[in-house]
Task: inverse folding
């Protein structure tokens, strides 16, 4: 029974690696991509949009909001990356948890305290914690990008 459990644990630990290897490295019409293009002054310009059409020599991006398309020659493209969704809000939990715990501790001591100065300081700290928690929760999550090498290396 023990070797079966070890084998099952090993298979589960390798599963994320195998699943990541199954992701395709090709570009499809309609996919959201970020394209870095070399500029004349040595900097790079970044364009984000959906693929309107694709050929061996050009990539046509549809600008979000129906504002038209942009034609990008393959020779000027430095990087193409596919959207991999947004970062989970649960990533912020280690930052927010201490603020919530300290707020709960301050609230519990404020009810027992009779000192007016302590109550004022505690209320100020609670307001600061509430502002920080609101800032972290209301800030939009960043988008994740996965580079696509196959189209550029042809």
Result:
């Amino acid at each position: 029974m023990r070797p079966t459990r070890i084998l099952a644990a090993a298979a589960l630990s390798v599963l994320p690696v195998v699943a990541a290897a199954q992701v395709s490295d090709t570009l499809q019409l309609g996919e959201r991509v970020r394209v870095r293009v070399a500029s004349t002054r040595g900097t790079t310009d970044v364009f984000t949009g959906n693929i309107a059409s694709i050929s061996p020599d050009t990539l046509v991006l549809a600008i979000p909001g129906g504002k038209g398309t942009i034609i990008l020659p393959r020779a000027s493209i430095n990087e193409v990356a596919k959207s991999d969704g947004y970062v989970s809000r649960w990533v912020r939990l280690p930052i927010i948890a201490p603020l919530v715990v300290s707020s709960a501790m301050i609230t519990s001591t404020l009810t027992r305290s009779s000192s007016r100065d302590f109550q004022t300081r505690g209320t100020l700290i609670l307001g600061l914690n509430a502002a920080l928690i609101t800032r972290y929760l209301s800030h939009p999550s960043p988008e994740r990008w996965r580079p696509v090498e196959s189209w550029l290396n042809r």
Summary: The chain has three helices and six strands. The CA atoms of residues 25 and 149 lie 7 Å apart.
